[in-house]
Design brief:
heterodimer, A: alpha/beta, 6-stranded mixed beta sheet, 18 helices, 24 strands, B: ABC transporter involved in vitamin B12 uptake, BtuC, two-stranded antiparallel ribbon, 14 helices, 4 strands, globular
């Protein structure tokens, strides 16, 4: 009885079957009025499917959804929106060429007989953004906004109908630490105004920070919900993976590093976002580069690899200089897994085998005089798929059909085939599930124990602390400190340097 | 040792429907026309179709390479005109023997300019080649002096009019190019690069591929293919003028698209394009033999292009399941 009284949404025995896959299996739980409810689970656990059903984009195969005690059958999104349910999906629905207020009223433009009432839209947009505490000018063109601001525009859009439920699919995936904080402030503010928020996240510390309730899904099934004080990170992980994961990070490390400066960077800069970066790494070392989003970490790696023009500085690997040109950098033993695997890394429409072998098709392992041996491509990629446990029905499968974790493994496999001496990994585990993460950590351990130097960039501080042998922190294009001692590895300390609370104390000049 | 112990390896299996591509449609069309009009199936008529299609096949082969990189070349028809006029002009000089090499060289030059604009100046391919389409036709008219350049004693007339056994040289050239580019795209490093650049140019850059160089090469290939077509057509006609090859770009694009080449790059084959070109050729020939008016032929051709792409979308949906 009491559930029906306070629950805004009840999910009752919901099952969703796609051709060949059971995405949700008899899921039942309730979402209380005014709570911040996190839904967590590995990729493929059915979170996004559930969110789509709750918002009316998809219809369940069987089962019921009750809203405020009444049975609801959604046939389209519009119905959901009119009931006050709004979905903000991972890929933001923003039209870059339109202004902020036009974006807020997309699909429900205020009008009289088809003629737009711009003034009213501008006024209501201002009010909506004010409610969020978002200082955005409503006339700004949307493509000038940061991802975080675009997200706020979407939230404002959700509020225009006096929305009651806000559903967000991985809202923090592409936000920086501060932006995430801002978003959480907005969510709390909305909570005070009576809004119920349901959100998906892969970042458990965030979930711990903001959620009133956490529901765990695994393989399409409901595992359980925790409330308030009972929410426990270790338990969530255990529920998600179905086994205890007392420590994600038990990868191999090389303890007896030689003192040689195997990989050395001297005064590298691009005259804009990277200024005089100097550091070294030893052979087989696992070095991590921390810093806020926009601190120049990715830009720095682009300079090493030569995809962006280097204005100053030199880079040496094993005594010889790395010329800033991608094809030459690869030849001198550099591997680079870029930040955005879909746009910078993978050829989504091409097969697994093409993706895995693309870096080595001009080597004599596969081709002679420019003519490719297709048998070799097959052999090498089949071997690689097996070795790295890439789940794909066959090597001809287009990578667009693989899960995020497996896509990332394909990308890693591509670079491992080049047998690099230095592997740069930019956010290697972003947006992938716990299982695939620990496999990637293990792989990194394998690499360093084979003498490969690994330079990892990550915004996930527990990951940096768990993986690194040594940490460099970047801020505004410069390295501000070096943390060598394991006991100095703490999120607070890294954040203090990254945000400038502790002044720079980095001495190394090459 | 004949047994293989390792049977749990992942097997490669692509649905048969996908492997055949547009071929069933081609075979179906031939059968339909043959049943409706027995004359259609004669050896002579088949050779007619092949010869009439050969020029489009040559242009469409180059176009396919460009479409695979995610680009487009609207200037092919104008290249045909200019190189045709060039070949004829040279054939009227004492250096007639250089007619073909000079025409091909002009093709390389135009391809280089188009490619440079796309790869280095970063003009959208549509714009770069639209400009080229217009100014090249202008040059063709200027060079021809606004009239047809005629040479009734053309030194390379054999290309357009002679046979090797029962097969016209035109057809042989077309098939040869299809075979060469099939091989290049399937079996060479360069060919794979074309697919990767078209599939995701940014990712290609991050794997050390020199993307501009690949793009440039693609436009040069298209320029040369069109120049070959220019030589072929002017040799067949013993003449050339500024109007030559008008609208050929659309036939070439249509052939590639019907053959399953994607407009966004990274997907398609030259064999598919060959089938696409033959479908267009067969429609033209079959409908003409049956006495269907030219106007209705246009209607049918347009519908076929759209149906072919719909078929491709359906095939992809089936595959993705």
């Amino acid at each position: 009885m009491d559930v029906a009284d306070t629950a805004i949404m009840e999910i009752i025995d919901v099952t969703k079957i796609y051709p060949g896959v059971k995405a949700l299996k008899n899921v039942s739980f309730a979402i209380q009025k005014g709570e911040i409810h996190a839904v967590v689970g590995e990729n493929g656990a059915g979170k996004s499917t559930l969110m789509k059903i709750l918002s009316g984009i998809e219809t369940q195969t069987s089962g019921k959804i009750r809203m405020n005690g009444e049975l609801r059958v959604f046939h389209d999104v519009k119905q959901g929106i009119e009931l006050g349910i709004n979905l903000i999906s991972q890929e933001l629905n923003i039209v870059p060429e339109l202004s902020v207020y036009e974006n807020i009223f997309i699909g429900s433009e205020l009008n009289t007989k088809g003629f737009l009432k711009r003034k009213e839209m501008i006024e209501s947009s201002k009010i909506l953004l004010k409610r969020l505490g978002a200082p955005i000018d409503v006339h700004t063109q949307a493509n000038r906004l940061s991802v975080a601001e675009q997200q706020q525009v979407e939230i404002a859009r959700a509020l225009r109908y006096e929305g009651k439920v806000l559903i967000m699919d991985e809202p923090t995936a592409s936000l920086s630490e501060t932006e995430t904080e801002n978003l959480f402030d907005v969510i709390r503010k909305l909570k005070d105004q009576g809004m119920t928020t349901i959100f998906i996240s892969h970042r458990l510390p965030e979930v711990m920070q903001i959620a009133d309730a956490v529901t765990v899904l695994r393989d399409g099934a409901y595992i359980g919900t925790m409330y308030g004080d009972q929410i426990d990170e270790q338990k969530i992980v255990k529920w998600m993976v179905g086994r205890e994961l007392s420590d994600y990070y038990h990868h191999k490390v090389v303890t007896d590093l030689s003192n040689e400066e195997y990989f050395k960077v001297v005064n590298v800069g691009d005259g804009k976002k990277v200024r005089d970066v100097s550091f070294f790494a030893k052979k087989g070392e696992l070095l991590c580069l921390a810093g806020l989003v926009g601190s120049g970490r990715t830009e720095f790696c682009n300079l090493v690899f030569g995809v962006a023009p280097r204005i100053s500085g030199n880079v040496f690997l094993n005594g010889s200089e790395i010329v800033p040109d991608p094809s030459l950098a690869i030849k001198s033993g550099v591997g680079y897994v870029p930040e955005d695997r879909k746009s910078q890394g993978l050829f989504l429409e091409l097969s697994c085998s093409m993706n895995i072998t693309t870096n080595i098709i001009d080597s004599d392992r596969i081709s002679r005089h420019g003519i490719v041996n297709l048998g070799k491509i097959k052999e090498i990629s089949e071997q690689s798929v097996k070795e790295h446990k890439i789940h794909t029905p066959n090597i001809q499968r287009q990578v667009i059909f693989l899960s995020g974790g497996n896509q990332q493994k394909v990308l890693l496999a591509r670079w491992l085939e080049t047998k690099p001496s230095l592997l740069i990994l930019d956010e290697p585990t972003r947006g992938i599930d716990v299982g695939a993460k620990s496999e990637i950590y293990e792989l990194m351990g394998e690499l360093v124990s084979n003498g490969v130097t690994v330079l990892m960039i990550s915004s996930d501080l527990p990951e940096i602390i768990g993986m690194a042998q040594r940490i460099l922190v970047m801020r505004e294009g410069q390295i501000v400190t070096e943390l060598v001692d394991k006991k100095d590895f703490s999120q607070e300390k890294i954040m203090a340097y990254a945000s400038g609370i502790i002044p720079p104390d980095y001495m190394y000049k090459g | 040792m004949t047994e293989t112990t390792n049977n749990n390896q992942i097997k490669i299996k692509t649905p048969i429907l996908h492997q055949l591509g547009i071929l069933p449609v081609l075979v179906g069309l031939i059968l339909i026309f043959w049943i409706l009009e027995p004359k259609f199936g004669s050896f002579n008529n088949m050779m007619n179709i092949f010869r009439a299609t050969s020029i489009n096949i040559v242009i469409a082969t180059g176009m396919t390479v460009i479409l695979l990189t995610g680009g487009i070349d609207l200037s092919v028809g104008s290249i045909v005109a200019l190189t045709g006029v060039v070949a004829l002009k040279v054939s009227l000089t004492p250096y007639a023997g250089f007619a073909i090499p000079v025409a091909l060289l002009v093709g390389v030059l135009i391809g280089t300019i188009n490619g440079m604009l796309v790869a280095y100046v970063k003009l959208p391919p549509f714009i770069a080649s639209l400009g080229a389409m217009t100014y090249l036709r202008g040059f063709a008219f200027i060079l021809a002096g606004g009239v047809s350049v005629i040479n009734s004693d053309l030194n390379f007339a054999w290309i357009g009019n002679d046979y090797l056994g029962p097969i016209p040289y035109l057809t042989i050239i077309a098939l040869l190019l299809v075979i060469i580019f099939s091989f290049v795209l399937k079996k060479t490093v360069f060919g794979m690069r074309i697919y990767t650049v078209g599939g995701n140019p940014q990712a290609a850059r991050y794997t050390g591929i020199k993307v501009p160089l690949i793009l440039l090469s693609a436009y040069i290939i298209s320029g040369v293919c069109s120049a070959i077509a220019g030589v072929m057509i002017s040799s067949r006609l013993y003449s050339a003028n500024g109007l030559l090859g008008e609208g050929y770009e659309l036939d070439a694009i249509a052939s590639a698209i019907i053959g399953g080449t994607s407009f966004t790059g990274g997907k398609g084959t030259v064999i598919g394009t060959l089938f696409g070109a033959l479908i267009i050729g067969i429609l033209n020939n079959g409908l003409t033999i049956m006495g269907v008016s030219y106007f209705w032929q246009q209607v049918v051709r347009g519908i076929v292009i759209i149906l072919a792409v719909i078929l491709d979308i359906i095939r992809n949906r089936i595959q993705s399941k």
